[in-house]
Amino acid sequence: MFTDFLKTNGPELLIKAWEHLYISLIAVLLGILVAVPLGILLTRMKRSAPVLIGAVNILQTLPSLAILAFFIPFLGVGKVPAIIALFFYSVLPILRNTYIGIKGINENLLEAGRGIGMTSWERIRFVEFPLALPVIMAGIRTATVYLIGWATLASFIGGGGLGDYIFTGLNLYQEEYIIAGAVPAIIMAIFVDFFLARVEGKVVPRGLKGTKQAV
């Protein structure tokens, strides 16, 4: 019975859930730190942008297990290679939405910024980034939900998390282990998406709400 499983493994389940959330959020944070500045930079590189975004698109199509296995010879096993692999998967939604969000800004608004003497950095900070924020936040939400799902594969290289239960259940043909890994991961993804939606509601200016673009 699953209730008996929870009584026996409840504390361990909480630890696995925390590991799962930890590696997912660290990977997303790294993705934000890299993809947002890179997306802004690509809006200034008209010739290179399609090539670089295309390269990231190709990376996104590689199987998750292949990416995880690729880092084993270089980084061994554990949380670090799992986080790095998940980081690569977080880059595309955030990078693409940052690029699209800024490129979609009305040119008249940018000209107005230039007209009042704003530097390039000031236009990014006070005009482009705030106007693109709804689209960027949509990319962050998408990446976070994806990574919480993909993080179940971190168990394949010893990264821990809820995937440990799923792989154990598959190996032992024990459905309670599979449920213990899959259901909390689904609930976590829903909760985190709801939380980020609330954060978006706080940080996005009221007049810009409803302008985000799905990825």
Q: In terms of structural class, how would the helical and strand content be classed?
A: mainly alpha
Outline, from the CA principal axes? Answer: elongated
The total of helices stands at 9
* Largest sheet entry: none
> Looking at CATH, which topology would you report?
MetI-like fold
End-to-end Cα distance: 40 Å
The overall pLDDT, averaged over residues, is: 86
Give the class-level CATH name: Mainly Alpha
CATH superfamily: MetI-like
Number of strands: 0
Query: Poorly predicted ranges (pLDDT <50, ≥5 residues)?
Result: none
Measured by DSSP, the beta-strand proportion falls in: under 5%
Radius of gyration, taken over Cα atoms and rounded to an integer in Å: 20 Å
Any guess at the CATH architecture? Orthogonal Bundle
Structural account:
With 215 residues, the protein is mainly alpha-helical. The protein has a single domain, classed as Orthogonal Bundle (MetI-like fold), CATH 1.10.3720.10. The protein has nine helices and no strands. Helix 2 runs antiparallel to helix 5, helix 5 packs across helix 7 and helix 8 runs antiparallel to helix 9. The longest helix has 41 residues.
